[in-house]
Amino acid sequence: MKKVAVILGSDSDLPVAERAFEVLRSLGVPFEARVMSAHRTPEAVASFARGARDEGFGAVVALAGKAAHLAGAVAAHTRLPVIGVPVGSPDLGGLDALLSTVQMPSGVPVAAVAIDGAANAAWLAARILAVEDRELAAALEEHAAATAREVARKDAALHERLEETR
């Protein structure tokens, strides 16, 4: 199975990144996490991105706040799918990071999830890898079925509660 790279622009992004780690662990998807900055360590970002495919990665999740150029910097140096996670901050609430993540030039795509949406970034990375991995595809199907069962349980509980109050 291919690995997922989870790159944090700062160690302050770790609480958000933990949500991605949790999803990837639950699915048995191998991952590696690194702290690299598009602005402070641009050479390290470029080198990592250029070698990511050869290192066994199949997708990259990049978390960054404020100017949030990390996902774009990675995408400029690899043809692997890159998923940007804009990280919220007190000053602008993450809108600056969101706009920096989604406004990429044509030909340098970055998929973007919600502000602080690291869990969905991990789910998306898993779906990308599952295109060529039947075991992972089966795990995703089981998760979807379990989620549907939980919603049905909650629906039944709501109906039961409403019947009790009539």
How does this structure look, described?
Helices cover 49% and strands 17% of the residues. The chain has 166 residues and is α/β, with parallel strands linked by helices. The chain has two domains: 3-132, Rossmann fold (3-Layer(aba) Sandwich); 134-166. Helix 1 (14-27) packs parallel to helix 5 (118-130). The protein is globular, with a radius of gyration of 18 Å. The model has no long low-confidence stretch (mean pLDDT 97).
Task: State the secondary-structure class.
Answer: alpha/beta
What is the CATH first-level class name of the largest domain? Answer: Alpha Beta
Distance between the termini: 54 Å
CATH topology of the largest domain: Rossmann fold
What's the rounded overall pLDDT mean?
Answer: 97
Count the helices. How many? 6
Helix content: 40-55%
List the helices and strands and how they pair.
Blueprint: E1 3-8, H1 14-27, E2 31-35, H2 42-51, E3 57-65, H3 70-75, E4 82-87, H4 95-102, E5 111-112, H5 118-130, H6 134-164
Parallel strand pairs: 1-2, 1-3, 3-4, 4-5
Please describe the structure with a list of short key phrases separated by commas or semicolons.
single chain; 166 residues; alpha/beta; Rossmann fold; five-stranded parallel beta sheet
Entry summary:
The chain is α/β, with parallel strands linked by helices. The protein folds into 2 domains: about 5-130, Rossmann fold, CATH 3.40.50.1970; about 135-165. The chain has helices at about 15-25, 40-50, 70-75, 95-100, 120-130, 135-165; strands spanning about 5-10, 30-35, 55-65, 80-85, 110.
